[in-house]
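Lab intake sheet, docking and co-folding queue.

SAMPLE TYPE: protein with bound small molecule
LIGAND NAME: adenosine-5'-triphosphate
LIGAND FORMAT: SMILES
REQUESTED OUTPUT: full 3D complex as structure tokens
PRIORITY: normal
SUBMITTED BY: R.K., bench team

The fields below were copied directly from the construct record.
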Amino acid sequence: MSLRGVSKGFSPAGGASVIQDVSLDIAPGEFVTILGPSGCGKTTLLRLINGLIPPDAGTVEIDGRAPSPGPSMSFVFQSFRLVPWLNAADNVGFGLALAGMERAQRQPVVRHWLERVGLAHAAASYPNQLSGGMKQRVALARALATDPDILLLDEPFASLDAQTREIMQLELLRLWEERKRLAVFVTHSVEEAILLADRIVVMGPAPRSIREIVPVDLPRPRRDDIRTDPRFLALRAQLTGTIRSLIADDPNSPFFRRA
Ligand SMILES: Nc1ncnc2c1ncn2[C@@H]1O[C@H](COP(=O)(O)OP(=O)(O)OP(=O)(O)O)[C@@H](O)[C@H]1O
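RESULT FIELD (auto-filled):
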């Protein structure tokens, strides 16, 4: 995947850029996290990557072509976005149904993914009967069921409580380390960014663009105890400092010169 000089503005006159001059290459099977303060354009970058919005300038290419949403690219959102009138199994099978797969063919795939996320027992439950963590497992299973080459995740664990969030991070790590898809994961959390990524792309405000790209040279497979590895702690201190200064240097931030 390749982004070259990508800019995007939303005003009709093409005024202030929401994203300015972003260039980035991501290799197949690579896990990249996008880290940055609120409002620095992280979600917009994901929407440009999945082809939901076109760039005003520059190019986004996947295998040499402009991106288009389809079964080879899955999206996971903070707000789960499950279909409320479908049970967990039908939610997991939703992308497969959209791709035209018959119910009988979908069933074993759905069963496999419900098992993989530990929800085989909840197949018949509806979203309003599931906890936040369970809903996010369903959303993850739905995203993986189509066997996408590209996984885009927009703060998927941000609305979960701290313990569930840590469990889900490890589950995602385990699933991804089994079959390494190109993953782009947006987060505000420095720890989450380090735990998951091969590389961390730090975005900043004013101008909203990439500030630095930090490789994460921690061994895989990674488990919970990686969080106490001295290299992890050093990276955490470095990135926390970077994010604090990005916020303190942003004249539009309420924490301008304070953080
Ligand atoms: N459709 C749109 N129309 C106008 N402005 C938009 C639109 N989408 C995003 N913006 C603006 O672009 C900026 C960046 O938004 P974006 O959601 O990409 O940032 P973000 O880094 O993901 O933020 P957060 O971390 O708070 O989710 C914000 O100022 C937002 O108001």
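REVIEWER NOTE: The first helix runs from residue 42 to 49.
SIGN-OFF: pending second check by T.M.
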